[in-house]
Amino acid sequence: MVTLVRMASPLRLVFLLVIHRVSGQYCGVGYRSSHICALKGSTVTVYCNYTYPTGYRIRKVFWTKTNEYEDSCEAEYPDLSEDPDYRQRFQYLGDKQQNCTIRLSNVTQKDLQNYYFRFITNKHGGKLFGKPEVTLTVTDLQVESPKRVTEGDPVRLTCKSSCDLTDRATFIWYRNSQPLTERRDRNNQLLLQSVRREDADRYSCALQGHTYISPAVQLSVTREYRFSHFSVSVSISSSGVIVEGDSVTLICSSDSNPPAEMSWFKGRTFVGSGKIYSISKISSDHSGEYKCKSSNEHGEKYSEAVTLNVMYPPKSASVSIIQFGQILEGDSVTLICSSDSNPPALNFIWFKENQSSSVGSGQSFSALQSGRFYCEAHNQHGSQRSDAVTVTGEGLIKVRGDKTNDTHYKQAICCTKW
Length: 418
Description:
Layout: E1 2-8, E2 13-22, E3 25-31, E4 35-39, E5 44-46, E6 48-51, E7 58-65, E8 90-92, E9 102-104, E10 113-121, E11 127-129, E12 134-139, E13 142-144, E14 149-150, E15 155-160, E16 171-175, E17 178-185, E18 189-192, E19 202-207, E20 217-218, E21 221-222, E22 232-236, E23 242-243, E24 248-254, E25 261-266, E26 269-273, E27 276-279, E28 288-296, E29 299-302, E30 306-308, E31 310-321, E32 325-326, E33 333-342, E34 347-352, E35 360-361, E36 364-367, E37 371-379, E38 382-385, E39 389-400, E40 407-417
Parallel strand pairs: 4-12, 14-21, 23-31
Antiparallel strand pairs: 1-2, 2-3, 3-6, 5-9, 7-10, 8-9, 10-11, 10-12, 13-15, 15-18, 16-17, 16-19, 19-20, 22-24, 24-27, 25-26, 25-28, 28-29, 28-30, 31-33, 32-40, 33-36, 34-35, 34-37, 37-38, 37-39, 39-40
């Protein structure tokens, strides 16, 4: 057996001929290409021709496959057209003269085999087995992409196959399953000159004229993370007046890329983490300035402060005395009503125990007689009553005038809490 290899330069066709000498004459099988790389799901044509001596008649022609190389033309091999895995996809395009071309449709990875043409004549020893074989490799497509790119950088996506496709291919690119009609060429690469955040989508590729589309790959675009290039802000769920006992939610927003981690601060004190900071049954102790800090691998930035101003009714109401000790007869003791409230209490009412009606109003009250007194402080959110204080008379004290012999009497007034 003699194996001849010839390169046909214009068409780049490779013929591998197996020549047998039969009774002084030659017969043989030739394949246009001995290695074929085909796309998954595509249709493959294997071009083939054969020769045999004059006077011979062809009894049978068929294609077969084998996983073992057998150097026997007399061995029996199964007919590919009778194989259940090929019967519906196999088509013999040749004849019984010299053409042995076949077509195999919808190829899969299972079709990765070595294939041989076989013909049998009416003469003894007139069986020919086409060796070397035709090797079929089936490939899919995969998009190769950088895992992460920075906004403004050039990006190159590559449509790759596991072998070099035999047929010259025109590549088509898809973005979010929609074809990029401006990208149809014989180059298997997609170049984005200056990538933008809007380019962060899913990309896939295909060959023109084929239904198979590669799995999509997500392109992640990172923004250059500098303080001047992104913003952080805080919003409050309640835009109205916040009253003690309400539930309040603070929301931190940032356009950082990649997404940032959020931290919350009241003044300089860390109070929580996450995009949302919630306060249930808010109290006056929660009043103050709050900030959100946005952080990722490129840096961090604080939001502007927002102020929680919690309104609440008067609490801790009390009475204090600004005048104490010996006073002249007829003088009074001044009592002051104080409370903690937001907004500050502006309405004060005074009461003397065991009396149904009030005895005065205003933040201060002049007590002209002994008794137990208390006040009530009011704002628009509620009121509170203070504890009572006792004003008592403790006898008369004689006081002599400076220039006369007149004698005046002074009543010693004492104020104590009960």
